[in-house]
Amino acid sequence: MEEIASFILAAVAAMFIGISKAGFGGGLGMLSTPLCVFALGADVALGVLLPLLSVGDLFSIYHYWGKWDKRNLWYLLPGVVVGVIFGVQLIGKISPDQLSLIIGFLASIFVIFQFTKEWVFRMERKLHPNHKVGVPFGIVAGLTSSFAHGAGPVVTIFLIPQKLSKEIFVGTMILVFTWVNWIKMPFFVSGGIINPSTLILSAKYFIFVPIGVWLGVWMNRRIPEKGFTLIIYIITLIAGIELIVSSI
């Protein structure tokens, strides 16, 4: 029974990658990490999810090809590389319980951010991005992405004040995440986070990513996005708090 429950949780985590990549609530993919931690453990979950996230990015970037502001890559990526290098080194020095605590904390902060971001970003002045701002944001994005595949809020904070159009904003987010995930890949491999056993598990759950994409498209047509997203954020918050409590 325990094996079946773990399989179901990990499969749902993979499906939420697809649902998020299909455009049904861009932040829904954050639920994948805590669910996968419950199913497989923190030390295994990060390595299993990254190949699935990278495959999911291909579905998204196809639909938004060329619809991005690529300047943001040059501002963020130098810091992302630094953040990922430090993040991978730190993962190797902390226990699974400590990693679960960090993931739970980041998941909870993510949900709080989603509920407050509209209030936070009521800015009259348009922000013109540059390396002075982009590099520090990139470092934090690299760190949070290494620990929980959770760079979304950091990148959002950097992009929203630029007042991009909705389509360009989404396309730029997808472009940045695609690069971030592929930048992490060699560091995760060299750090042993991705290894033959995690790759076998990734392959086992791969099919659930395109299923999630199809499900996301289907739900977009039939279910009000606002209510569905609210439910998922609440589940993510509960999962994050549970990880914090169980780790302590």
What does this structure look like?
It is a single chain. With 248 residues, this protein is mainly alpha-helical. The protein has one domain (2-247). 79% of the residues lie in helices and 0% in strands. It has eleven helices and no strands. The protein has helices at residues 2-21, 32-40, 42-63, 71-91, 96-120, 131-148, 152-159, 166-190, 196-205, 208-222, 225-247. The longest helix has 25 residues, at 96-120. The protein is globular. The two termini are 26 Å apart.
What attributes does this structure have?
248 residues, mainly alpha, globular
Domains counted in the coordinates: how many?
1
Instruction: Tell how many strands the DSSP assignment holds.
Output: 0
Overall pLDDT metric: 82
Q: What Rg, in angstroms, do the CA atoms define? A: 17 Å
Largest sheet: none
**What is the percent of helical residues?**
over 70%
The ordered H/E elements are HHHHHHHHHHH
- Strand proportion, as a percent range, falls in under 5%
Low-confidence stretches: none
Q: What best-fitting shape do the alpha-carbon axes yield? A: globular
Quaternary organisation: single chain
- End-to-end span in angstroms? 26 Å
Alpha-beta classification = mainly alpha
How many alpha or pi helices?
Answer: 11
